[in-house]
Structures are given as structure tokens and as C-alpha cells.
Design brief:
The protein is an alpha/beta fold. The protein is 38% helix and 17% strand. α7 links the parallel β7 and β8. The chain binds 3-phosphoglyceric acid. 3-phosphoglyceric acid (3PG) binds next to loops. The site of 3-phosphoglyceric acid has 11 residues, from loops.
Amino acid sequence: MKKVLVATVKPFAPAAVDGIREVLDKAGYEMVLLEKYNSPDEWKKVAADVDAMIIRSDKATADVIEAAENLKVIVRAGAGYDNVDLDACTKKGVVAMNTPGQNSNAVAELAFGMMLYHVRKGFDGTSGTELRGKKLGIHAYGNVGKFVADIAKGFGMDLYAFDPFVDNADMEKDGIKPLSSEKELYKTCDFVSLHIPANDKTKKSIGYDLLSVMPKNGVVVNTARKEVIDEEGLLKIMEERSDIGYLSDVAPDCREEIESKFPGRFVFTAKKMGAQTSEANINAGIAAATQIVNYLEKGDTTFQVN
Ligand code: 3PG
């Protein structure tokens, strides 16, 4: 009987675990559940004899991949796979996949939750501002960016995007004005919502140069990865300009400094929670389980990323 390990420090909603179990049961597979584990060693022990793994932001290092001696496929139930050592997977002949689009709406909704919380001053009873009529820049027009655009239309925002990998015509047909550079996006937009992956090119790529050209009261909304921000540049511009705001799903490493120096100009979640909804967990979890079954039974490598 094939064994699939669901290894999640941050557990899926119970309904998602039920859904994953149902898919695996149907295929005649055994599901092993390892939630809220305390160390990679705990994970490595349970991983030793499994054929497949489903993870979230869990760090699938070379160590973990090697310890999973029978591993054939690992699926990151979500979009970003910067937590998976792809070289280690490839070296071992393990297929790595993600489940693009499955949790995108949840992330997009959180971006607006943070924006509203910020412009309404944390609902503290004082007068805030509105989103309607403001310029929203979507930095990368992928799955999450598209949901962000849809929601923004309901708020009556004016939409812009920068994405060198998407045709301008595709953005235009969605009612979005494509801009030709990052700089132009940050210069034009009152809010910039980040949806770029974290990789060698993008890490620390959003810093002083871009933030300093934002209009008055410019706000960056980061539901992507904290690593794409150059925190030195962020601190510098927050120091120089008292109007700039930074909202982030997962606080930056310089959280304490921002919290002590710039009250009212940030919103940070307690824990990465863009995809923390039942719906997103169910969608991504079931997609991951289905992809595993399809790969192990039919060799289907859709969404392979290595
Ligand atoms: C993703 O890349 O899909 C999101 O960041 C979600 O991450 P999570 O599964 O750890 O919540």
C-alpha cells in the first residue's frame, strides 16, 4: 500500500484533511498525518518510508528529501515552492509540484483585509480614507494578481500592473493598464500589491529605489514573501517619509524597529495566513492529493516544478 505523508507545521483546516484522506482512500493509499511537528528530525523519522508528501511552507531541505528514502513525489499545496530544495529532489529522482491558483482567492482577500484595516486606522474610531478611486498597482499579474484585480474592481479602484511575462493585451482585456517598468508602477500607484515569487532575482528587489518614488501616502501590500523586500531600504524610506505604509503577511525581520518607530503605518499578521482559509486549504490539499495519485498511477507530471 502506498503511503502519503501530510507534513504541516501549520495544519490544514480539518475539512481539508478529510478531503485529502478521501482522495487517498479512494486510490487505496494510506495517509500519515504529521501536524505541528517540533523539529525536522521528527519529520525525517516519519518520512523514511513514504512514497509521497504533501507540505505547505514546511522547509523541505536536502536533508529531509534524502531521509525520505522511498519518496517519489512531493507536492507543495500552494503556489510558492521556495521552501523546497528542488536540486535535492532532482538528484534523487523525486518529482516536485505545486498547486497553482488553488489558494489565490484567499491571498487576494487578505490583501484587501489589510488595506481596509490600514486605511480605516485599525478601526480605532478616527477618520480614515477610502479605496475607491485610488490607483492600485499589481506587481505581477499571475493567479493571485488576477483575483486582486477582480476584487479591486468592486472597490472602484483604478488598476495598473507590471508583469514582463504577461502580454499587455491580456491585461488590457481585463481592464488593467499595463506599465512598462517596476519604477513606473511604484511611481504611479497609491497602493502596490506584491505577487512576485521569492527567487534569486526577486529577493530584496523591492527597496529604497522603488519605495521612494511612490506618491504621497503610498502603501506597499506584501502577501508574497517577506524576503522580496530590502528591509534596509524599507526602514530608510519609512524614516525619511512619514506618509509611507507597509502591510505584510508575515512580519519583516525588522518588525520591532518598525513597530517602535512608525506606529499606525504598518499591518503585520501574526503568522503567514494568506492561504489560511478552509476553502483554500480544501482546494490546495485536494489538488495536491489528486496530483500525487495521478503521478503515481499514470505518470502525470502536470505542475512539476523541477
Ligand atoms: C503559497 O505560496 O501558496 C502561500 O504563501 C501559502 O502558504 P501556506 O500554505 O504556508 O499558508
